[in-house]
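Hello Y.,

Per our agreement to keep a running log of every chain we model this quarter, I'm adding this entry. I've kept the format consistent with earlier entries: sequence first, then predicted structure.
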Amino acid sequence: MTSATTSTTTSLALAPGLLVAAPRSGSGKTTLVLGLLRALARRDIAVQPMKCGPDYIDPGFHTAAAARISRNLDGWTMRPALLDGLIAEAAGDADIIVCEALMGLFDGVASAGATDDGSSAGIAARAGWPVILVLDVSGQSQSAGAVAKGFASFRADTRIAGVILNKVASPRHEALARKGVEAAGLPVVGVLPRRADLELPERHLGLVQAEEIAGLERILEALADFVEAHVDLEALRALAAPTQGRPAARDYGLAPPGQRIALARDAAFSFVYPHLIAGWQRQGAEILPFSPLNDEAPDESADVAWLPGGYPELHAGRLAANAGFLTGLRAFAQRRAVHGECGGYMVLGEALVDAQGEAHAMAGLLALETSFAKRKMSLGYRKAVLLADCPLGRAGASVRGHEFHYSTMLRSTDEPLFSAEGANATSLGELGSRRGLVTGSYFHVIDRGE
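Predicted structure for the entry above:
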C-alpha cells in the first residue's frame, strides 16, 4: 500500500487552541493539563488534547482525562503536510484544543528539520496558539516576573497570553509573585498551591502508564477539582485563539506495512503513536490487536506483525514463559514480515536481561541480546535510510522518528536495517537488524521522510 496523501476541499471553522508550557520539565504542566482537561470535559466542553514531541505516556493520560484521543505534534519528525493535517483535524470537531508542551517552551534541536527545530514554540507559532506559561515559583517571588518577561520577548512569533503560578506557599508568596508577573504586563489566570498528594507515579521512561494506575478516575477528578478551585477557567478559555488553517491536502503519513496488521497491544507493548495507527486505518488497513502477555499469537490472516515498544523488561519472565505467543510468532515469521520497535525489537532477539541480571529467552528471530542490568540512556531524533525492503518502506526510502531507551545491546550479528543520523546530521552509522522476513531497531518511526 503506497497512497499516503488525499486532497480534499473543506472550509472548516477551526476551534481555538492554547499551548500550556513551562520554562523546564518538572514545572507541573502535566498535572495542570490533566486537571484542566477533565474540568472542561465535565462541563460538556469538547476539549481536544494534544502533546508536543515524541511522547507516548502523557497522551494516554490526556485521553483518559478528556475522553478524546490525544495526538502528538512534532515539528522535527513530521513533514509540514502531516503536521498541518493533524492540527486541522484536531480543530475541526472540538470546542477548544489544549496542547501540552514538551520540556521547556523553546527547547528543541540545534538544526532545523522537516518543519522547525522541534520546539513546542514552533508548534504554537504554526498553529497560531497563544501560550499559557506555568511557572514553578518555589524559591522565588517577584523574580517570576523577570522569567515571564524573558519568555514573552524571546521569540517574535510566540505569544505568552497568560501565566499560572505553581507551588505557591502562602498568600504573601502569591501576592509578591503576582506583582512581578503583572509588572511584566502579563495576566495571572491561576495560582496553584503546593499539593504533593496530587503528583503522579513515575518510572525510568517517565510517568507510569495511565492504564496501570489504580484509581485513575479518582485522581483525575481530584485534579479537576483542584484546577477549578485555583484557575479562572473562563479567563483561560477567553485567551484561546482560532487555530490557523493550512492548505486542504490531507496527508496520512507513513504508508501501512500491510492490509491486515497484527499489532501487539498490552502493558508490555503500548508505545504506539495514535496518528500512525489512524493514518494506516484511513489508508485502508485493518488493525488486528493481540496480547503477548495473554499468550496470544499474531492472527494468521495478517500480512505483517508489528511489535511496538513498551515495557517488556518488566514482564520478561512472563513473556519467556508464554509458549503460545513465542511459537505462534516464530511460525508467523516463516511466512510473513515481522517488525519490532524498541521493546518489540528486544523481544524479537534471543535474550533479554532484566534489571536484576536474569536472562530471559525471547523469540530468537534476530541474533540479538539486550540488557537492563547495565542501564544507559539513548535519546534523540533519528533520520534513517532503509538498506532493504521492510515494513517501514522500500530500500532507499527515508523515515524519521525518535529513540529513547535505557537498555544496552550486548550482541547483534544480523545485517543492519538502515543507516542513520541524528538531529544535527551527525552520522550514527548502520543500525537495526534484519534476518529473513524479520526486522527491528530501537527506532520509533513517526513519519516518512521528504
